[in-house]
Amino acid sequence: MTVITNIEDLKRIYRRRAPKMFYDYCESGSWSEQTFRENVTDFEKIRLRQRVAVDMTGRSTATQMVGQDVAMPVALAPVGLLGMQHADGEILAARAAEAFGVPFTLSTMSICSIEDVAERTQKPFWFQLYTMTDEDYVRRLLQRAKDAKCSALVITLDLQIIGQRHKDLKNGLSAPPKPTLKNWLDLSLRWRWGLNMLQTPRRHFGNIVGHAQGVDDPSSLFEWTAKQFDPALDWKKVAKLIEMWDGPTILKGILDEEDARMAAEVGADAIVVSNHGGRQLDGALSAIRMLPRIVDAVGDRIEIHMDGGIRSGQDVLKAVALGAKGTYVGRAFVYGLGAMGQQGVESALEVIRKELDTSMALCGRRRIEDLGRDVLLVPEDFEGRWQDV
Ligand SMILES: Cc1cc2nc3c(=O)[nH]c(=O)nc-3n(C[C@H](O)[C@H](O)[C@H](O)COP(=O)(O)O)c2cc1C
């Protein structure tokens, strides 16, 4: 049995066990993948200040995100198609988050439906909304999330149209995979995945099939969603959605100070500084690089979260020290899920928690609230000197 000590360990097992099509779907960014790569490498540029002879007893990583208690400032990011990474993936990931005491965010594009996840978990989870042109469908989706007692709404703003990821096109990504020779050959190597998948009825987009108009053929869903995502989304519509939800709302995909100001004005409770894990606008700056500027611009007006590139507890520490009240992990928990289901997600969270706790101690801090920019060594040119626009 492999001893899991870091997220890379989980990634290696995940790569062996998950169908190539879904591994590639997770492990890619748009176009040249520059932003995808820099989300990770920019974290490495920040260093930590080692402090000694500080009482380290009674440490805690517990804090709050949008007023809700969390065991550490880390939520599971909304990730589509989890149920293809591992059978019943959304339910397993939600259970892992619940056991750990961190929020799970269910994507609109999940395989297990909102109701499925709610029935098979004890605590409320968060729901992520992609806005669609079919307003009636959106209204019903929000009502379903309310009925399922979702405790926060995450509205994703950076995917009105989809960024091109070469591998998905080349692999003919679909859920479930189409019965082609290439797919059969690949699936024959992933018997564990196949056996689990045979035992679940959940193989289509659970929030959509049977709920949205004009979707009779689930395999045409990618086409349907591409047509359905609302290219006309604007701040007025965002304001309307916030009003409609009437509960904690988080706007995800903010990467610019001006947009952050708009988000604060429109009445959201929090924003996620994010570039969708480098999957949308390739060439955008990494999320960790944009974070300090956005904190300076609106940090006193709205709660700030961030995601993109977090692969360790030290990354979480750096983001929090730069002003994020919370962070999200995407790929880091998908690796765990694809490797070992619920146990793998718990393992990913434990790796992150342990590293966060130990790093805090070695920086001489005992509580999340004590983390500030003074625990970091940030290169002078970290934010970059870009000409004013
Ligand atoms: C495979 C995959 C699917 C994703 N699906 C969604 C989604 O359905 N909704 C959404 O808002 N973000 C989605 N994201 C973006 C994540 O929520 C998050 O912003 C990103 O993964 C953070 O970067 P990281 O993977 O480096 O942690 C997805 C990301 C990945 C890797």
From TrEMBL:
Span of domain FMN hydroxy acid dehydrogenase: 1-381
Xref: SUPFAM superfamilies: FMN-linked oxidoreductases
Keywords annotated in UniProt: Flavoprotein, FMN, Oxidoreductase
Classification via PROSITE patterns: FMN_HYDROXY_ACID_DH_1, FMN_HYDROXY_ACID_DH_2
Molecular function per GO: FMN binding; oxidoreductase activity, acting on CH-OH group of donors
GO cellular component, one term: plasma membrane
Alphabetical list of InterPro entries matching this protein: Aldolase_TIM, Alpha-hydoxy_acid_DH_FMN, FMN-dep_DH, FMN_HAD, FMN_hydac_DH_AS
Source domain of life: Bacteria
Glycoprotein among keywords: no
The protein's required cofactors: FMN
Pfam families: FMN_dh
Binding-site list for glyoxylate: Y25, R165, H276, R279
UniProt protein name: L-lactate dehydrogenase (Cytochrome)
